[in-house]
Amino acid sequence: MKKVFIAGASFMLVASHAFAQSSVALYGIIDEGFQYTSNTGGKSTYQLADGSMAGDRWGLLGSEDLGGGWRAVFRLENGFNLNSGTLGNAGRMFGRQAYVGVASNTLGTLTFGRQYDSFVDFIAPLTSTGGYAGWAFTHPFDNDNAVDTFRVNNSIKYTSTNLNGLTFGGLYGMSNQTGGFANNRAYSLGATYSAAALTVAAAYMRIDNPGQNASGALANDDTNFTARKQQVWGGALKYVWASASFGLIYTHTSLDQPTSSIYAGNFNVVPSSLKFDNIEANMLYQFTPALSALLMYTYTNGTFDASQGTSKPHWHEAGVMVDYYLSKRTDIYALGAYQRVAGGLTGTFLDNANITGGAGPSSGRNQTFARIGLKHTF
User: Fold this and answer.
1) Which of 7, 58, 82, 165 has a CA between 20 and 30 Å from the CA of residue 201?
2) Is the per-residue pLDDT at 187 higher than 50?
3) Taking the domains of the chain in order of start, what are their residue ranges?
């Protein structure tokens, strides 16, 4: 009897030690607010809308120690619609992220599944949309995916450890199609370097036939554009001085034969190519640990090449946001955005203002958006 007790106690000690090396965390964000969009098809729109500053989500993040500095990792992240209780991300159970992999303290992390691309990982955190304010400050039609309109399915992703301020990584999303290896595949590379007050980042992404193969890297229900080819590249920097931080971002997006946008529908005149050059400047000022204010301005120059000629539309976007933390996990915020489309007419939806995250396209070349919100994290 004594031997059984000792054996049982030993087992419990070993089991407790094993469990102590593993962890699973539940986390999430709930963002709710009241918003106004001017000139939605000629009329003003008032809405109770969720997930504007940060998409509503809950997730499970896990890690298990494998010994020798290695561990197994996974993440399952669900997106949902707060006001209806339905699944987000086109009805996917874990549409925001779903991956499993291995990580090393020295060699980095290798993961497999539905994941963010290198632009989201390295450039987006320095933008006003991906780093602070969410949908309302997006570059037109989220053409560079800075607010993660899409994730990459069937993807293999590597992220390095922090090497004296340098972090880099890459992703490859497979088409999974027999006889169509490059039909709806994606790949991206990126890096960021931080030293004292300065952070710089760069990234490149290419997608062949985005959204045109249902089993491929980008599903057609959550890609920003459907096209023959999409390429995005850019760089960003952030400088912190006392209580202020300043950001400057440039991104370039090139689309070959785009046929539609998830935000505006089909092109009635299909261009041979469409290009966006986005230049964003932003400034965040921290008045107190709880109170901050953000200003941003983005100029986007477009090039629309079609059979009837070349048009040069351009977009001016400006925004302001004030954010106040009631506690470490709950904040209230107010933001406003204005967009104006100018330059040459294309005869398509590109001619009308359309603030992403608002109620829909304007009937003219101007649109205004305002929102008051409450965000809670857990």
Assistant:
1) 58
2) yes
3) 22-377
